[in-house]
Structure formats: C-alpha cells, structure tokens
Amino acid sequence: MFSKAFVPYKGYWSSPFSRWQGMIQNEDSVYLGASAAKQFFALRGYTVDLFDSIVFGTTIPQKSWFYASPHFASLMGNPMISGPLMAQACATSTVSLNYAANCVETGGNQTVLVATTDRMSNGPNILWPNPNGPGGQPTFESWVMDGFAMDPMAETSPTGTAENVAKKHGFTREQSDAMAIARYNKYTDALKNDREFQKRYMLPLEIQVSRKKTVMFEEDEGITPCTEEGMARLKTKPGCVLTFGAQTHPADGNAGMIVTTKEKADELSADKAVTIQLIAYGAARADKAHMPEAATFAAQNSLKNAGLAVSDMAAVKTHNPFTINDLTMQKILGVDEKIFNNYGSSMIFGHPQGPTTMRLFIELIEELVILGGGYGLLSGCAAGDSGASLIVKVN
C-alpha cells in the first residue's frame, strides 16, 4: 500500500484521442506531448522547476527516441531533470504511476511528473540485421502492425486471446454485442451538456497543418457509433463471438499527471477541499493466450494489497480492448454495471498505448469527485497476457 503518494486536484491532463491516421497522424508524439505539458503548466499556473523527476511513458519509437526522458524534460522546459522510460504496452501509464508513487513513498523524490504519449499512426518500420539471410538480407518488422498481428508468446493475435477467453467462460455473440452497445452509450454520457464531463480534464491541442495554418484539436476524433442495428450487421469468423464493433481501435494522444506529497498536492490543488491519494498497485499475468483475464487478476491483486473489496469501490474503470475484458470482470468479480466504466472507456475512444490508462485514471478521479469521494479501481490488460491495476481514494 501507499501512504504518502498524492495527486493535486486538476494536476493532470489528457489530450483528445484521435483514431489512427487522423488529425495528428504526422505529429511527433514526443514533441506534441511536451507541447501539451507546457500548455498544461500555463493553464494551471505551475512553474516547470517544481518537478524533481519525470517518468516518461511511451511505447512507439519516434525520431531520437534513444534520448527519451531527458529529451522530453528539456522540450517541456526543464533540462535539469530526467527519469526512466516506461514501456509496457497499454499498461504503461499504470506502471508509470506506480513507479512515481514508490519514488515519493520512499522519499527519493518529492514531485514527479508522469508524462505519457504515443502515436500509433505511421508507426516505424524496422530493418533488423540478419547476417544469415540470403545475401545478408535484413529482417523486416512493422512495429505497430506486426504487434497487432501476433503475440510471439501467445502464438496468436490479441484478438485471438480474447476469443480464447470467450470460449473458456462461455460468452456469446449476444453478450458481446450488448456490452459494446452499453459501453458506447456510457461514452455518450461524457458528451452531454457540450462535453461537460470531458472538459473537466481534456486539454485541446493546437496542430500545425501548414506553414501558415493551425487548427485546434479539441475533441475525440473517429468515434464509431454503436447501435443494435449496426452491431447486428457485423460478421464474425466461424466459431468466434467478436465483431469489429466489439473491440477498440488504435489511436494517437497524450496525457500526464503529477504525483507528489500530501503537502505539495494541497499547495498545487485547484481545490484544497479535494484530496486524491494513491492507495495500492497490483499486477498479474494470465495463462498463455488469455490476455483479457489479466485485467481481472491484476484488479484482484490491487484490492488484496489495499485490504479492500469490490464492494468498497464507488467507481471502476478498465482498459477494455475487447468486450470480453468487462464480461470477464463482471463474471469473476461481480462488478455492478452502475459503477462500471461510466463516461467511457478505451474500447470506445481508442488506445494510444502509453497514455491509455492515464486518461482512464483521470476520468476515474473526476467521477469520484462528482460522487463526493470514495475508492476507485483502475485495471487493464497489456501485451504478453499481463495486467496492471491501481486503487485511488478521493476525499
């Protein structure tokens, strides 16, 4: 458990997420993330020298990625700090926040910026040396597309792991479709009253589209409506339950959060009546080729570490690349749908990998504030049948 790691109220941001090959498909994610961080500092009235460390979460290489955290820190305006590069696919933000919380907990740092950013669009294509190839011909890897196609340990695609879990638990096409529709409808709640909920945390980005023209990127791009009629028209492979509408899409975006001491969080908070405390972390790994189960197992571990139960939670958010993730968590943990993924989830707004669970965690905090406080659970799966989870308390 944590006892000393806190987050200032409004000490976080997320950009809108853009479906891949959309508005920010050509933006270097490191530069765009640093620009967003600077914009966030100005909005909140923070000075960049308040940080004594950075945790940089990103999973898809950009040019000069070798320099990672110190490069990002310099771009955002503080060339005197550095910190680790974290990369655990879609669990990157969760493990990054855990690392930052431990730094504060042990006294190694006082105020850490956890900055996460990724661009799945136009991912790198790599030529690996292969001296044994015909004529020394190199081996080719498409960083993003090959990752989608095959998990080398599971020996199937991520979608294949979801189908395995569906078969194990007996989930049907009808259950999957109903879950997809429910998740879309909850996302639309965040759009009500001119996106009132999203505007509590979402940071618009100014994008240069030509030498003389910029546009504002203010809301999620590329969201596909999900209806009973639309889902019914989609096909599955023989013996499968998942359709295209029952899974997430790759995206681009960035997000960040300050992790600090109680005293510093109070100082930086937009409302000193709100206290946000990180409580516990849990990780897990599912059986081979059963990735969606890992989110549930990680949640079990974080609850155990916190000495809490699902019944103690006021809200639950998941990185759910497939409907199967949430069906599994409901079956095993009995999560009440009334508290489950309100205002949206990554199945609907997409996953840029690094920033994915950061946005979910921010939404979880804001939901708890609206509710007047309580415990919240974040959990999600990641590549390699792994999962990571965090519990937060808002007073």
TrEMBL record:
What CDD domains does the entry give? thiolase
**InterPro entries named in the record:** Thiolase, Thiolase-like, Thiolase_C, Thiolase_N
Thiolase C-terminal domain: residues covered? 277-393
Top-rank taxon, per record: Bacteria
Q: Which Gene3D superfamilies match?
A: 3.40.47.10
Sorted keywords for this record are: Acyltransferase, Transferase
- Name the protein family: Belongs to the thiolase-like superfamily. Thiolase family.
Q: What is this protein called?
A: Acetyl-CoA acetyltransferase
**From what organism does this protein derive?**
Desulfosarcina ovata subsp. ovata
Origin organism lineage: Bacteria, Pseudomonadati, Thermodesulfobacteriota, Desulfobacteria, Desulfobacterales
